[in-house]
């Protein structure tokens, strides 16, 4: 079934283009707003159908509006992503080749780390092994700031993690490039970086922190959903969804 | 992540400067030698390609436009042909037709040739501008505020303004071009380089001035993208006056083709 796009869809798409990423509440409000402006029917529970119509027309352009979760808060987000074979068309136009190499090295460090993060020291050290034009320490630090500013990385106390937007956008790339390394969350089936891991060596499943919180809420004795072993990690509280959060 | 193979990288850093000089003339030549293929040639070219190949090339052109447009850089036909269209140049008109249709039907944008001589294109929004707050805060570029002020000044002063006038007005608004601005950095550079490159402003030397003086006009992008009635509304709100009280500007705003641009799409 191919539903036609109207101006409400186009305006929604333009908002996504301007913002890159919008949280679920925001997307719902934009959906309602676009329908009201263009006098089209608005069904509050039909946001995903509405987006599907846009996606059916975006797909030939190798673009897509995709949904994903913040690994930190568990909130849902929508991001406009580019699936052209380079995956990062926008990124390749914003960053030089050697800067992209450093980003790739950072991605390596994060994917191979236990907790889904990389310290600035490790990133600075990895800059020494670059094959393209080497970056000085100060340049690397500036680049990291820029990657945070452009919303590819998050930073907390010198530890870098992948932003929600980055994960949504790069998931297909990461899954292909790190096939053996990447694991999905046992609960939500999305790719997992910042998460808890089952300590049973024959199991070792991963669960996102927000998914842990939701899954074990109200359970007296937490057990691994896969192997039934005791779940030894601290169970975080379920966070209330924030509105207007931009990650 | 792209794994673009740039052969130049293999040679280290020594090579990169050697061709810096002739590039500009080279591109002009490229564009001069690019002749629009005839309908017949396009037809023949299409016969040799699969629909999937044509779609793929169209998608690349659309992507290229979107990436450039995000930075408000006009697209040169010469660059487009050289970097994207490449060996499909014999069906260039067909690809542009399809790209334009996609912008129109999917993105609500219109592809406009702002400079037919140099073949420069930009994208403008076809959807009616909406007054009133959007439900989510758009990451509005603070530079756009600066730009809007300058465009307003030029418009209210009849279309052309000496730079010293603009600098004085900006200083009154807290943007001193002699000092580093915390948001814009070198604000003079933003105005006379960035806005000019994006074709929002024209910045030309006033002949026979000593010391050298420049003046500003609206650039081609501003002419098609910025609504003059909106500027008057803005000025009206600022000064607590009716937009009609500037009768000359009011007439100009409501007669210029640009004011009706967004309303021309008849299918709504
Ligand atoms: Zn999960
Ligand atoms: Zn287990």
Automatic annotation (TrEMBL), chain A:
Record's subcellular location: Chromosome, Telomere; Nucleus
An annotated GO cellular component: chromosome, telomeric region
GO molecular function terms listed in the Swiss-Prot or TrEMBL record: ubiquitin protein ligase activity; zinc ion binding
InterPro entries in the record: Nse1 (IPR011513), Nse1_RING_C4HC3-type (IPR014857), WH-like_DNA-bd_sf (IPR036388), Znf_RING (IPR001841), Znf_RING/FYVE/PHD (IPR013083)
UniProt-listed Enzyme Commission number(s): 2.3.2.27
All copies of domain RING-type, residue ranges: 185-228
Enzyme's top EC category: transferase
Gene3D superfamilies from the UniProt entry: 3.90.1150.220, Winged helix-like DNA-binding domain superfamily/Winged helix DNA-binding domain, Zinc/RING finger domain, C3HC4 (zinc finger)
Main location: nucleus
PROSITE patterns named in the record: ZF_RING_2
Keywords: Chromosome, DNA damage, DNA recombination, DNA repair, Metal-binding, Nucleus, Telomere, Transferase, Ubl conjugation pathway, Zinc, Zinc-finger
Any coiled-coil regions, as ranges: none
Source organism, top-level taxon: Eukaryota
Catalytic activity: S-ubiquitinyl-[E2 ubiquitin-conjugating enzyme]-L-cysteine + [acceptor protein]-L-lysine = [E2 ubiquitin-conjugating enzyme]-L-cysteine + N(6)-ubiquitinyl-[acceptor protein]-L-lysine
One biological process term in Gene Ontology: double-strand break repair via homologous recombination
UniProt family annotation: Belongs to the NSE1 family.
Task of the protein: RING-type zinc finger-containing E3 ubiquitin ligase that assembles with melanoma antigen protein (MAGE) to catalyze the direct transfer of ubiquitin from E2 ubiquitin-conjugating enzyme to a specific substrate. Involved in maintenance of genome integrity, DNA damage response and DNA repair.
Subunit structure comment from the entry: Component of the Smc5-Smc6 complex.
Name the UniProt record assigns to this protein: Non-structural maintenance of chromosomes element 1 homolog
Species the sequence originates in: Eleginops maclovinus
TrEMBL record, chain B:
Entry-linked InterPro entries: MAGE, MAGE_WH1, MAGE_WH2, MHD_dom
UniProt-listed Pfam families: MAGE
Gene Ontology CC annotations of this record: nucleus
Gene3D superfamilies: MAGE homology domain, winged helix WH1 motif, MAGE homology domain, winged helix WH2 motif
Domain MAGE: 54-253
Stretch list, region Disordered: 1-42, 244-268
Compositionally biased residues, Polar residues: 10-25, 33-42
Name assigned to this protein: MAGE domain-containing protein
Organism name: Eleginops maclovinus
